[in-house]
Amino acid sequence: MLSGRRLDLINPSALDVEIEDIAHGLARVARWNGQTTGDHAYSVAQHSLLVTDLAQAFAPDWDQTKLLAALLHDAPEYVIGDMISPFKTALGVDYRDFEGRLEAAIHVRFGIPVETPKHVERTIKRADRVSAYLEAIELAGFELDEAAKIFGRPRLTPAQSRAARRWIRPMPAGEAQAAYLKRFATLATA
What we know:
This protein is mainly α. The longest helix has 21 residues, at 118-138. The protein has 10 helices and no strands. It is globular. The chain has one domain (15-189): Hypothetical protein af1432 (Orthogonal Bundle), CATH 1.10.3210. It has helices at residues 19-27, 44-58, 64-71, 77-80, 85-91, 93-109, 118-138, 144-151, 158-165, 173-189.
């Protein structure tokens, strides 16, 4: 990693996980395999910020640990990249196991329970699906009905919709990285 850490991919240790490596990697991993509008790729870092904002809108009483879990929900992708869910399934259990071990190390490193409570998982997944819907129609060229068929049509209040759309614009990697680190610092110190 750029931090100088050596991450054992088979048996990752929380001691080798650094937020700077995660932010750097996620800001450079393109969502939608780079097939989005704009001069820059829409990054997993931006997606993670969007999911965090949506999760907070759906669960305004969440503490910082739960919001940190939302921010880090795709953190393993700093090492393994962004793969669509059907492809992950096609790769099989070994891939899921590998991703799970890396996620567990990340959670331990940042004080998040390794086993995410089911209600927290469901809210993050809901935010993830709404994010995918919004990204699909705003950035990836999907028609409204097509996106609704695949991701479901979200029901958002006008305030939730406005808050979500602030992250739906491709930005330079350095800007996405800085925004991710800033959000992490806010959540980690609260």
